[in-house]
Amino acid sequence: MVDKKTKEWSGCPVRFGMSQFGDKWSFLIIRDLMFKGRKYYNEFLESGEGISTNILASRLADLEENGLVTKRQDTIKRSKYVYALTEKGIALMPMMLAMIDWAEKYDDKTEVPSDFIEELRHQPEALRQKLLKSLKSD
């Protein structure tokens, strides 16, 4: 299926990536799923970033359509849906970790827990494995 975002794709991997998750809201949803344990619609709304309900619904649908996120009905509360990263979404972890490291170095306002950044810089594989384990246990 060729969608409007990749219809005239030039073969550039950066352009393809941006067509899959190329706006701040999508990255923040991925961040919340990957690092903050959020998995319900209301948890994304309450993340403090100020995303509106229509933008959140649209970005979640886009991420699901692009195969980065799954949506399933909650087994306990049937009126709720649970969102999770797919393998394709989890594969973004090295890029997300690199962004965190880069921002922590170059942005004075970036706040990363010191133990997290320490582990990222000195034991990156152990951190990655710990994060993968938590994502796959959900």
TrEMBL record:
Pfam family, one: HxlR
Sequence intervals crossing the membrane: 81-100
Gene3D superfamilies in alphabetical order: Winged helix-like DNA-binding domain superfamily/Winged helix DNA-binding domain
Keyword Transcription regulation: yes
GO molecular function: DNA binding
Keywords noted in UniProt: DNA-binding, Membrane, Transcription, Transcription regulation, Transmembrane, Transmembrane helix
Domain of life (superkingdom): Bacteria
Residue ranges of every copy of the HTH hxlR-type domain listed in the record: 12-111
Name of the molecule in the record: Putative HTH-type transcriptional regulator YybR
Organism: BD1-7 clade bacterium
Higher taxonomy: Bacteria, Pseudomonadati, Pseudomonadota, Gammaproteobacteria, Cellvibrionales
